[in-house]
Amino acid sequence: MSKGRPIDEMLKPLAGNPIQAYLGNGLHTLGLLHWILSQTGKADVWVSSYSTSEAFLNGFMLMKMKGTIGRSMVLLDQRAVKKTLKLVGEMKMAFDHVFFGQNHSKIVLVKNECWQVAVVTSQNQTYGDRAESSIITTDSGVFDVIMRQFVELAGRNSVEFIINDNDETEGFERLLYGHHHIGGTAPRHGGDGDKSGTSCDASPDTGTDWEPFGV
User: Fold this and answer.
1) In this structure, how many other beta carbons lie within 10 angstroms of the beta carbon of residue 18?
2) Cβ atoms within 10 A of the Cβ of 112, count?
3) Radius of gyration for the chain, computed over Cα atoms and rounded to the nearest angstrom
């Protein structure tokens, strides 16, 4: 899913390499996620970005359909709502939960019973020829810190876009006019409430009433 050189020529395998960095062209978020999942196996995925794109959403959806992605969540910047209005259908198919807030971070968190992988990158969910930088780590301490802060950001400073099957544009229109909770159903906070029950699960105490799935 990446353009240019294979990612294996840019990065070493996750196993035995707890932190890696890359600065240059050709390493795109979608391809990097595919590369990570090819090593971790099926995992839950959290993503944040300023905005998204049809190419990223379609690629993410294909990975989910193939069974490599479990539960999924994305956090986008609220100022990108107008831009992403036409992508409601793709977001609905790709992600279980869509949040909007004041966000300019670009991260990917991948977690299952054996792996915790955190990616911090300069790249939005788009393709381009400009150089981008990324740091990839399997350090559980780093993962926990980012997850705690992700929970804080999504739980206190963002709103979940509840997609209404009867009127997909309603949520965006209401968000633009400042309604706190979006769409045609009761507000939800993060995941579906169940925990994966695996030995790798973290249980961060963030001081919020919101917990992401799998945590």
Assistant:
1) 12
2) 20
3) 17
Q: Which two tokens stand for residue 28?
A: 């795109």
Residue with tokens 């009433």: 209
How far is Cα 118 from Cα 137, in angstroms, rounded to an integer?
5
Beta pairing class for 132-137 and 19-24: antiparallel
Residue 160 pLDDT class (50, 70, 90 cuts): confident
Q: pLDDT tens for residues 114-154?
A: 999 999 999 877 777 778 899 999 999 999 999 999 888 88
pLDDT tens string 180-193: 333 333 333 333 33
Q: How far apart are CA 194 and CA 208, in angstroms?
A: 17
- CA atoms of 204 and 115, how far apart (whole Å): 17
- Decide: 182 and 175 in contact? Cβ < 8 Å: yes
pTM of the model: 0.75
| Structure letter (DSSP) for residue 131 | -
Q: Give the Cα separation of 110 and 115 in Å (integer).
A: 7
Question: Which candidate, 146, 108, 102, places its Cα nearest to that of 31?
Answer: 108
Interatomic CA distance for residues 100 and 24, integer angstroms: 29
Query: Which band of pLDDT confidence, cut at 50, 70 and 90, is reported for residue 165?
Result: low
Q: What is the rounded CA–CA span in Å between residue 153 and residue 102?
A: 9
Burial 114-136 (b: 16+ CB within 10 A, else e): ebbbbbbbebbbbeeeeebebbb
44 phi/psi in degrees, rounded to 5:
-80, 150
